[in-house]
Amino acid sequence: MKAHRADGLSAFFEPASVAVFGSLNDSAFAIGNAFGVIKNMLSFRFKGKIYPINLSGGETMGIKAYTNVSEVGDAVDLAMLLIPPRAVPAVINQCASKGIRAVIVGTENFAEAGEEGAALQKEVVKIARRSGTRVLGPNTLGVLNPSNGLITTPYPLYYDSVMKGGISYCSQSGLLSFGACPLKDKGYPISKMCDFGNKCDVNEVDLLNYLAEDSDTRVISMHLEDIKDGHAFMEATRKAVVKKPVLIFKPGRSEAGAKAAASHTGSLAGDNQIYDSAFRQAGAIRVNNLGEFWEIPRVFSSQPLPKGNRFAVIVGSGGSGVIAIDTATDVGLIPATFTTSTVRKMARLSPRLANNPVDIGPVSVTASDPFSVFEEMIPIVLADGNVDCVTIGCMGTPESVDVFRRLKTHLSDISKPITIFLWGTDLQIMEESARQLEALGIPTYLDLETAVKSLGVSVAYSKIKLRAER
Amino acid sequence: MKAHRADGLSAFFEPASVAVFGSLNDSAFAIGNAFGVIKNMLSFRFKGKIYPINLSGGETMGIKAYTNVSEVGDAVDLAMLLIPPRAVPAVINQCASKGIRAVIVGTENFAEAGEEGAALQKEVVKIARRSGTRVLGPNTLGVLNPSNGLITTPYPLYYDSVMKGGISYCSQSGLLSFGACPLKDKGYPISKMCDFGNKCDVNEVDLLNYLAEDSDTRVISMHLEDIKDGHAFMEATRKAVVKKPVLIFKPGRSEAGAKAAASHTGSLAGDNQIYDSAFRQAGAIRVNNLGEFWEIPRVFSSQPLPKGNRFAVIVGSGGSGVIAIDTATDVGLIPATFTTSTVRKMARLSPRLANNPVDIGPVSVTASDPFSVFEEMIPIVLADGNVDCVTIGCMGTPESVDVFRRLKTHLSDISKPITIFLWGTDLQIMEESARQLEALGIPTYLDLETAVKSLGVSVAYSKIKLRAER
Predict the structure, then answer these.
(1) Which of A36, A71, B299, B424 is 20 to 30 Å apart from B12, CA to CA?
(2) Does the model's ipTM exceed the 0.90 cut?
(3) CA distance B114 to B122
(4) Which DSSP symbol is given to B181?
(5) What is the pLDDT of residues A235-246, one digit of tens each?
(6) CA nearest to A182 within chain B
(7) Taking the CB of residue B272, how many other CB atoms lie within 10 A of it?
(8) Which chain A residues contact residue B361 at CB under 8 A?
(9) pLDDT in tens, B293-304
């Protein structure tokens, strides 16, 4: 099936050259244009060549503009179109003639806007199928690839880089994309991102196939409002989950939500329970909200999979231990029972330390250096043969970051997944500490329950992978 | 019942003078002491008098210290004790003799630490009961009252003020208190806060009774690991919910969690389902996690109660509208159907605007000033007779804050609850915008689902209040 080939997709994420069609006006009232895209690509230090295409020609930000893509002497891999809807079909034909195999149609007012737009979108699909040029969109911000600095959104961003890592996010809404999330400040370790838009040609199946094979992607987190071809989706998911976890955030659970989705995407959202069982059968893991869509994947970007579901938690207050154990039980983890050897080692530090949750609060307030208690305790808990995964709660400060910097080699050697939960009284210091820990390769959360739940999802995926490999 | 009087409690929150017992050592390795408390009270500009009490006398930060509280000439309303456990009983007796009716025992190592500590705690209770002096703790950070600058934690904070407002938070763990949360940065509008500690005397029933009568408190959000007296708790809750909502976060839902709670507080956590039905019967609303404990109360601090459950949402992307409607349905709201008059007014702005969710995205990208579309749309939606409550999603920037500053009078006149959800690409700008909107009296969330859920909880409380008043 032509529409589900993965091969055409690498040009969307790894182009050596990009043609950007649209206005080069840099006034504040025309920011959603080609100028905006090129500005973002320059600030992200895109490693390939950029060719602005505009009827007026000239140049922008020191880059020569062409009046027609056919004038560009070199090969062009990807085109980003921010031109009026009616001009789109002809320009895709020009792109195809130039040998461009990947086109993003950023422009709005296609199928989502009524009958006229829908007819135009059909024409786009026809051209795509006939020419073999793949089309992402319309009505999309396009793609992001931090490895080569590719970013195709025309809107101004307050950041000029994101952390490189193993998460690939795909979504069917600008809200869940690089245009509406503080990606850099949140420190998400990102491999690729894709905003599907109207999915007239390139869709979730193509992305699943492509990202399953992409060696930089360790986890796929996908927001979907509808699924174009259920059978192909199931097949692509089944193949992907052998290699990496697929997390799905699919709103429209309620009848009212499904109706809202239908009116907005122009496609039927379908029965929620059918989706639920399809996801389960295919091995996708459904996440429940925006926070989980963004945060849960962190654990897969850097951590090994757990060998079992025996969970330990190290905290600085008894109350947080109770919340952690509660959440763990909700997500299929069981509290680990420490070996006598572990209990003995802990008791040497303090007679009150032999339980799980390990509450180091009472010990650390009397210690000359409270962080040294953490540094001693973490390896003891991780080495326990009865422990499969660990959440560590600690204060979000530079001192905590230093502890984990010193433990880094030890943590990789032990090969058990951990997550960190940070607390504190200064949000900026907490956020900066979280980014630094994430950069060290440790999934770090400002929310205790999500730190624990991520490990539960990690256990769930281990089981799916085992089943899929059989 | 003496233990459940509310009267003794005002001295804990409105003292004209506070005696702080403990070390006045200001070295970095002795921060959890009287010096730390006084330092925090000075930086919060406590409006009353402070009397440091320390065997060595002298002075600290320009304040004269006394070797015994009996030497203080004036009356003392509240004492904060950070002295070794064994010294506590005698000092409480001294406080009682001095006429102090409220004592906070900050020191750890009482019932939570084993038999010896438990015996000592019993002695404390005996003295409290005999003398009529109320005791909060032991093992507590104490209280916070932003109205008079009272703060009793001995640990360093990264903030020196919090926003004044209508939320009173009570918790049984330092993690959910002013010592481990960036209260100022999060912009919670706070009336009072109390860390229960071991609850040897003052407990959740006292606080419910006190806060129900406190005119600055518009909502009570309470974290509980156990309940000392179920009958009294039910009675106090029933009385409180006639006046204001009571939100309860009670972990220990799982058997393992309950066990962890028991080992940490030394009290039995009890069966989860019994708690569930007791809360429901008494009219308390149970929240499910740390995020909800902190965030849901915002809506009650400033907003009127909704007259019904008909919900509208104004968003900048179709995808977020679907998520909002889905969440709304989950929490008992129903999507409002706009009147023909509203539909006509909207259609004048754009033919694509007549639906709920109101997706202004397509209109605002082509508008010369995208924020003016918001400013026109909000009053139209709020005025609709079929709409009871509204969530508004917008970019977290100074321009959005300006829109709501201009609409402020209009919003209060219309008397329907609204919540704001902010999105954006710069976290600090988003957080600053959220604080400014909260200061304007509009509950503001960085999470779409919580913004919607808060309105659902508001509807739930309306029903509880109606039932309770009958």
Answers:
(1) B299
(2) yes
(3) 12
(4) S
(5) 999 999 999 999
(6) B425
(7) 17
(8) 174
(9) 999 999 999 999
